[in-house]
């Protein structure tokens, strides 16, 4: 009898089998693996293009064609916006009222930087002439032009920083540097294209 009671007590107080009871205070569900988490966080590039795992070849081909068509349409709209200045379809780096204002301000003025490349080509031609004084003059002109570009870019950046911050506040972030880089490009080759004539500064 004594041995029987000990066996019953051990059976009642023994450890429960795995899965018999949920852990007190636990999540109540197994922790997902890394692969399952990555699959859950994946999203389709084009809305509505997700396909089930058992999709047919025809369905996959149609989805690829739809994604390609959507990407081509978006690129066409961006190229057109680069010419017309359509704010809705410009790339993210050119979008925003502060950057639009900076573009118009830069396009309305004459910047020293936009004449640097033509002058550099002239200096290159002068430097190959077998004349010592001509070569020295070309070097002097080049360094003078570089100094003028640096001074003009510094003054332009300071002006853009003051004006855009007073008009757009926190939205002016990045606009001064954006306008300064644009001023270094030849006006005809700037993208997005200039939308204002010379001398017509934005208000």
Pick out its properties.
203 residues, mainly alpha, 0% strand
Structure at a glance:
The chain is mainly α. Helix content is 58%, strand content 0%.
End-to-end gap = 103 Å
Number of helices: 7
Mean pLDDT level: 80
**Low-pLDDT windows of residues:** 6-25, 42-48
Molecular shape: elongated
Please give the largest β-sheet: none
SSE string = HHHHHHH
- Tell me the strand percentage band: under 5%
- The helix content, as a percent range, equals 55-70%
Summing up helix and strand content along with how strands pair, one would put the structural category as mainly alpha
Q: In words, what does this structure look like?
A:
- The chain contains seven helices and no strands.
- It has helices at 2-13, 34-41, 57-84, 97-108, 116-127, 132-168, 175-183.
- Helices cover 58% and strands 0% of the residues.
- Among the domains are: 60-90; 95-189, no CATH class.
- It has 203 residues and is mainly alpha-helical.
Topology, please?
Elements: H1 2-13, H2 34-41, H3 57-84, H4 97-108, H5 116-127, H6 132-168, H7 175-183
Helix pairs in contact: 4-6, 4-7, 5-6, 6-7
């Amino acid at each position: 009898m004594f041995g029987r009671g000990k066996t019953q007590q051990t059976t009642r107080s023994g450890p429960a089998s795995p899965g018999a009871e949920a852990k007190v205070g636990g999540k109540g569900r197994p922790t997902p693996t890394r692969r399952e988490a990555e699959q859950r966080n994946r999203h389709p590039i084009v809305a509505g293009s997700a396909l089930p795992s058992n999709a047919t070849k025809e369905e996959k081909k149609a989805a690829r064609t739809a994604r390609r068509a959507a990407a081509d349409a978006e690129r066409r709209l961006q190229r057109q916006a680069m010419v017309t200045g359509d704010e809705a379809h410009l790339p993210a780096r050119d979008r925003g009222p502060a950057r639009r204002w900076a573009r118009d301000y830069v396009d309305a003025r004459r910047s020293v930087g936009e004449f640097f490349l033509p002058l550099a080509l002239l200096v290159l031609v002068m430097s190959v002439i077998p004349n010592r004084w001509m070569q020295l003059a070309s070097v002097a002109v080049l360094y003078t032009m570089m100094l003028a570009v640096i001074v003009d870019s510094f003054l332009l950046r300071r002006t853009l920083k003051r004006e855009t911050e007073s008009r757009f506040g926190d939205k002016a972030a990045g606009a001064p540097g954006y306008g300064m880089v644009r001023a270094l490009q030849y006006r005809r080759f700037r993208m997005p294209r200039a939308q204002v004539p010379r001398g017509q500064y934005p208000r």
